[in-house]
Amino acid sequence: MDSESAIGEIATAGMIGGGAWGTALAQVCARAGLRVTLQAREPEVVAGVNGQHVNSLFLPGVTLDAAVSATADLADLAGCDIVLAVAPAQHLRSALAAFAPHARPGLPVLLCAKGVEQGTLKLMTEVMAETLPAAAPAVLSGPSFAGEVARGLPTAVTLACPDEDLGQALAQAIATPTFRPYQAADMIGAEAGGAVKNVLAIACGIVEGKGLGRSAHAALITRGFAEMTRLAVALGGEAETVAGLCGLGDLVLTCSSPQSRNMSVGLALGGGQSLEAALSGKLTVAEGVASAPAVRALAARLGVEVPICEAVAQILAGERGVDEAILGLLSRPLKTER
Fold first, then answer.
1. Which of 103, 190, 223, 325 is such that its CA lies 20 to 30 A from the CA of 11?
2. Is 114 annotated as a binding residue?
């Protein structure tokens, strides 16, 4: 039996979360030929999508495919063949718990949030296992800016799923000529890469904001990638996964453009702004701000050394100033690279 017939035809997709990324992925699914129901909490998003085919609140300037409709009711996703969970990481538990009464056993749920849950220090697959234990999990992660994806610019991502047939069916269902999902089995590695890169992007923004130069920027990405890999492996993921699109690829993108929400926060901090000022007026979520203390605590629990992530968490918590944190990193003992 082939993969598509094993899970049935995929003709409809539901999106939990009507932010920029959820809207962009709705557009991807519509381009792939699926009928899409986008769930959003904001009445103006629902009205705009259904009335004018736009999400002017979170993704202005993009006309959405006619196959995308919106709703405020999670029950309207109950009949979808697949569901993409695109709520922010710190809100994913409540979103999945609210959807749970409407989710049938075996429903494929593609996790698209990047982060570590505060308090529990759990990855998104662990959150899903507790809230939707009968669903079939997969992870979508990789270098992707919502605006570019929504406009149809070329993008490649990792689609990680332990069930190879399901992973293949999901990849085929959402792929387009400009949106290329590459399959992997290692969900932990894919998740770890996506979570840690947001914290490192804040660090890279600080380096840029302080004017420390391209050499420092390159060094931070490289040493940050080492931290990401150590943590992923300690969690049970594979270094090879993190070296792909969902780890290194996403890190390079997020740490190289002010378009990144997380890097923009770092730029503001490096330029002397307070965290409150850096976050002021932003509708979209900078996941790294919430994930930094969770990554720090998770690494401590696992005995993994993550000095860059630790420094970011200290800055965000007000435990250290930017200059003091930078000096601390530059004063660390010299070691072998590996």
1. 190
2. yes
